[in-house]
Amino acid sequence: MIASDLDGTIVSSTGKISTRTRDAFLAAREAGIHIVFVTGRPYRWLTPIVDAFGGLGTVICSNGAVLYDLENDQVLWSRTIDAATAVEAQQIILHHEPQASFAAETTKGLHLGAGFAETGRTLGSLAELDLHSPELDAEGIVKFLARSPGLAVEAFYSAVFPELSRLLWLTHSATGVSLLEMAHLQIHKANTLDEYARRLQIKPAEIMAFGDMPNDIEMLQYAGHGYAMASGHRETLAATKLIAPPFAEDGVAQVIEGLLK
Description:
By secondary structure, the chain is an alpha/beta fold. It contains 9 helices and 14 strands.
């Protein structure tokens, strides 16, 4: 199995997958290797995959909180947090960063708090965030988001982690913005990848994985062959033994091409 992150790993900042990378994945699939994309994106934001591959298989979305059948446009499985937990997390975060703004990604769409989105940015289907609304529990929160306008993301993460880590799994993956991503304590990319691989009777030693950001670390350490992108975050590079060439050089494609020789 090949498991790959999207943004910064095989998807550019313009939302494109290169022809070389596309061809490498298709060749791997033709050779009988299972392909699964593993992303922090919600299942509604899989346009790069659809554009490059059409309806190709299963995607692990929202950092592992959703298992999505792309071919049949169907959520197969989700692990959510309740609104009460999000409220408690919000209170902890505001204690350390009073200027923080919030959003909640559910199985149905994005609930956006005041000040969270950049002016003029389109984020898709939106609803106003009300953490006391029964709607949130009805839909199920798959990812709770907090943004700081002033703290660097590492400082933001370090300030809230000691208290938040008992409630939620916490990571960050965005570039150019101080954004924390929170999910169910038992959720990250590796856990859901493991569950999916077990269904296919594939062992960790038989998995090659690629990623570039801290939210990929667990997945890269879980896989028998976990590659951090040379162009990736320093924490990710420090946490893995194998390094793929940088994104700008189609690093993932290079490794896959070497595998198939």
